[in-house]
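Example 5.3 — hydroxymethylglutaryl-CoA reductase (NADPH)
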Amino acid sequence: MSDQRIRIPRDAEHDHTSEIAARRRRFAGERTGAALDHLGSYSIDPSGTAGNIEHFTGVAQVPVGLAGPLRIDGEHARGDFYVPLATTEGTLVASYNRGMRLLAECGGVRTTVVEQSMQRAPVFVFDDARAARDFGRWVDARFSDIKTAAETTTRIGKLQSIGQYAVGPLRYLRFNYTTGDAAGQNMSGKATHAACEWIVAHHPDHPRYILSGNIDTDKKHSQINTLLTRGRRVVAEAVIRDEVLRKVMGVDARTLFAARQISMAGATLAGSANNGSHAANGLAALFIATGQDAANVAESHAGITYVRLLDNGDYYWSITLPALIVATVGGGTGLPTQRECLQLLGCAGPGYADKFAEICAATVLAGETSLASAVIAGDWVTSHERYGRNRPGEEGARD
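Solution (predicted structure tokens):
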């Protein structure tokens, strides 16, 4: 075997073209024997992917289904929405569609964006704990100057506060920003770098720092995000009438409430990031369809379900998503198919991130109602037999 590295074809000036993409597919096919015909079938202009991907080679075509109407009574999202879900999991769209029917027949979902906050969290390093503590006081006294330095890098991002956390000779600073309609990770990183450079230049010790001390917990779940918010904290809630629950889901509110107590205990036992059923399912499908950063599902799926059995026998159901990271500008939201899916929701472009966040939360609630009811009613397995991948004769192929 040769020690020489064989590089993937690249054109330094015109790397996002159909021609160079075809060359890369031929390169890969010749070395692996794979036929890449479908990878090379797409309608988008490759030049539009610059800034979204390197070594553009083709497009992964993920099936998109519509669920709805999803009826929302939010502060930003109001009316009936048809939700595009990109997935290869049979039954998922049908399940969410059923949950949306239930919620619509009960008057819809009430949604609330509670707060917004995106973080970058540098750590400053000192010789001992006292120096680190005194540095923290220095930072508090100069917040206005630090804020000015950070905001010189962005028109949209606004530094709201700086949380501080002490570990031995280390001082972790968690910079908290609002970022408008952008997800804001890169924006907050650039702004925080400028702020840290200002701190180093003006502090008498000129301390050294690392731009991320890992308590911003980018692309991974954390308890600090659950408590303090990352992205948007959004609540979706509904009162579900017992007679509608029986008609649509085949379960009654009292049985559903009793099962909720058991699943709450199970989530606690497991140390789960979400005491509900499957928020990641709906969020991943929505994220892929609308050009969100799919890795943000790692944070965004965290959720807290809270329910009440009402005196009249109806069922109050809410889900709080404390770290929902979404955008309607930037990233993949401007790509053609993803923009079309955002347009389906009336959420394409500036001014719609809060609206989109409310739609995401309402979609999650619809999925929670459907799956939790299916487990109790015994429909969970049979629905996958009917719509999904559990069809007879396919087990061997999956294995």
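Remark. The chain has three domains: 8-61, 65-115+222-398, 122-210.
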